[in-house]
Write a structure and sequence with these properties.
With 312 residues, the protein is mainly beta. β9 and β10 form a beta hairpin. The longest helix has 6 residues.
Amino acid sequence: MVRGAFGIFYAAPYDGGDATTSVATGFGDSLAIPNGGDGTPISFRLRDPIPVTTIHSTLDDSFGAVPVGTQPFTSVSFYERKRATGYSQQMNLSVQHEVFGGMMVDLGYLGNLSRKMPSDPLSINQIRPELLGPGSSQALRPYPQFSDVLVQSPALGVMNYHAFVAKAQKRFSKGFNLLATYTWSKALDNTTSIAALGNEGSAYSNLYNRRADYGPSENDIHHRITWSSVYQMPFGRGRKYGNNSLAGAVFGNWSIGSVLIWQTAPPFTVRTSVPPSGRSTGGSTPGRLASRLNTNSAIRASTLFGPPTACR
């Protein structure tokens, strides 16, 4: 028997892990601890009051912006006015055949190609990579009037999933049943996953080179095996050997069940908690890969972490 199907499914307007229904427009009072021009925190003594600054918003069309050259305290976010609707193309093709003894074998292909999927909030206030360096300041950002400018749930996620699936099934007969599956798959995307098994830290490494974020998904499980079966011992009343034996007295009316789930581990991204160059706040993802990692020796972070290179 041959089965196949294809369908296109559309996402909800703001489907995804972020169900935010409003954005930060810059209005409202807040408290802030000042930092240096390059984003590094300032020093103060615990015995002294924390140097907190109260920020009073002005209710006008500036949305909390400050003059260029002064320290901003407001992060704003917005939705795209012409936001695209995400969709997923899902397909499958399988061949099923009974081989022997009531054993059914099913071999098939599964595919899921998703486009324009909702993603994590995207900062568009990143300093260009060629301008980065020690002492990089707020003035180099595209919108220096704000501490950050975020696109809420941008529809830019791309995900490709392909899998080969094998299944063997035997319905209960002659005291035995079996259901076993094997999946060999590959999942690639450029955004975070909902209910992720792995951890990539952040969906974005470089606003100006989104191709560098395309790689193994947090839910990329290369191999997965499942097995479940029940074997009914042939001893006991109504069974092959009855109760008229020592084995029947010991093993009569017993069954043995087994359940197995085995899979390879999901991927994760190595990150630093502090940027090596001190050029901004937050961590960094590796821009280069080491050919060999020796866990018994130290590796300089500066040799592995930096702006990611373009895919070639």
